[in-house]
Every structure is written in structure tokens, then in C-alpha cells.
Amino acid sequence: MANRTVTLGDVELPRIGLGTNRLTNTPENVAFLQAAVDAGVRMIDTAHLYTGGESEKTIGAALAPFADGLVVATKGGHGGAKPDVLRGEIEESLRRLRTDEIALYYLHRVDPETPIEESLSVIAEYREQGAIRQVGVSQVTVDQIERARQVVPVAAVQNHYSLSEQEHDDVVDYCAEHGIVFVPFFPLRGVDEPAPVALAWLLERSPATLPIPGTLSLEHLKENLGALD
Predict the structure, then answer these.
(1) Catalytic residue at 106?
(2) What is the pLDDT of residue 2?
(3) Which domains does the chain possess?
(4) 6: region left, alpha or beta (phi > 0 left; psi from -120 to 50 alpha)
């Protein structure tokens, strides 16, 4: 059976996380996040742009200050990743999440108009200041990961990957080889198999995978966590 955990930096995490791209700031969703953590979720994934900032605000309202061993990951630079844009988004994410240290911060997308090195140098600055603990990159090729690693240690890579979408096989294998956590987003999109089966396949595919299926239902969340068994 696949390992139940993977190590990100110095934190050991169960290999099923929670995506929050539809999360809005309601009392029900605050309660849902608290119940998700109680159920064993230790990786919560959000982004500066999700639901116009409400996803980050809801996570901050529900869970800040974040418990030891809980990784709240966020992303910036989706609509452009020039240094001043990223600085603004990082500051806003820190405020919304009500934290002074983001556990994992991804460059959300490589900006075609800005070299990846320029974007990541800003994220590296925040890491040196202690406002970002681990750095990730998203929607990237192996070549882009290698360029990123020249600027800053890369702890996680997030690409679209699932039973029905295997374009990034080379990235999955590269991450396993180099001790980088591979975070498949949309792990259930377009997949015909039951969710626990599709997630279990991802866990078996590589010891580095940590899928982040999105849900707002505690029942579905518990079903997803069942893939660990």
C-alpha cells in the first residue's frame, strides 16, 4: 500500500489535502474548515485570486493562528508576476490569512512577460525575511522547475494531473527523484472512477504525490481521506 504521509520541508503531512477554489466566507464554511482539520486534513490549498480573496479570508477567520503541523498554502502571480505585483499580493495574502508566515507560497503561473527568475527572487526575499517558509511553483515544466531551483529551494510543484490527465508524467517523476512534493490539482476532474479510487491511483503513481481535491462537503472530504486506506 502507498505511504500515508509525505514530508514537506520539516512537516510530515497526510497525502490528501483540501482545495478551496470555491470557498466563500460564510459561517457554514468556517465550520466546515474547522471540521476538516478535526477530520485529519493538514494541507489546505488556496490562492490570492480564489473567490475574489474570500477563500483566504475564510481560512484566516476559521483557523488562524494556524496549528503546528497544519500547512496553509497560497499562490500569487496568476494574472501577472512582475515583482511589484507579487509583493502586493503576498502582503495581501498575509493579511487575509491573519498570519505573519505563509507555510507554502507558490508562484501561481509563470508570467510570459516576466522571467521566472525575477518573479521568484521576490518570493525568495520574503522567505529570507521569514514571511514565507517553503516555496512552490505551479503550472510548470521540468525546465522551469530547474530554473526556479537556481533561485530558491523548491519544496512543492502543483500541476493539473489525474487519471484522465497525465501530460505531466515527466514532472511527477522529476519531483519524486528530487524530493519535491507533487500536488495534483483537479485530481478528480473528468475522471469516471469513484473519488477514492482515482485518489488512490494518484497515491500509488508516485510517493511524492499529495492530491488536493476541492469540496465544501464534510461527507465528500471524509470519502476523499478514505483513499489513504
Answers:
(1) no
(2) 75
(3) 6-224 (3.20.20.100)
(4) beta
